[in-house]
Structure formats: structure tokens, C-alpha cells
Amino acid sequence: MPAPHPRGARHELVDFVSDDRLRASAEGRTFTRQRWSTPIRSYRHLHGGRVAVAGEAQWHAPAPEGRFSYVEFHVDDIAYNTGHSATPRAPDAGQRR
Fold first, then answer.
1. How many CB atoms lie within 10 A of CB 16?
2. What is the pLDDT of residues 20-60, one digit of tens each?
3. Mind giving me the DSSP string for 2-14?
4. pTM: predicted TM-score of the whole model, two decimal places
5. Which residues share a beta bridge with 50?
6. Three-class secondary structure assignment of 56-97
7. What residues have CB less than 8 Å from 9, skipping those under 6 apart?
8. H or E segment to which residue 39 belongs
């Protein structure tokens, strides 16, 4: 069963926790479930929306490793619907590339 997802007073996600990630053994032959989480440290209003602007991703490894961060993020700005297509548009008939 997934771990609970704590939310702040403003109903914002403050930490997502999951026990369904797999960690490979040293030889890469076996895998064990390991907890990971994504604590969010702060939110800010950016361009009309409230956005998570600081946080990290953490593995919760057994001892002796313990918990460690493998990603830290900080958002300074964000752009939505910039008009760029993920797939290039096909040229019009008769148009050369």
C-alpha cells in the first residue's frame, strides 16, 4: 500500500513518498523495493499559478547508507504553452527543406 502524501495548510503537496521503486543488487541480478520521497521545501506564485520552486528527491536506503538526496531543484522561472511543438510539423506540399 502506498505511503500517505502529506499536504500543507494550503493543500499543497509537501512530500510524496513511495515504496515501489526498485534498487539493483551490486551484481545487478536481484532487485529490492526501496522507499523514495520528494520533499518540497517551498512554493511561489509564478505567472498566475502557484508552483513548487524548491525541493529534492531522496532514496531511503537501509543502513549504513541511510537517506540521501540524489536530486535538488530550484525553479527561478517557468513558461507554459510556449507554442513549440514536440513533433516537427511536416512541410507544406511543394515546399523544400
1. 17
2. 889 899 999 999 999 999 999 999 999 888 899 999 999 99
3. PPP--B-TTS-B-
4. 0.62
5. 45
6. EEEEECCCCCCEEEEEEEECCCCCCCCCCCCCCCCCCCCCCC
7. none
8. strand 31-46
CB 42 within 8 A of CB 51: no
Exposed / middle / buried, residue 59 (Cβ in 10 Å: 0-12, 13-18, 19+): middle
Measured distance CA(90)–CA(82) in Å, rounded: 19
d(CA 67, CA 76): 27
Cα–Cα nearest to 56, from 47, 67, 44, 64: 67
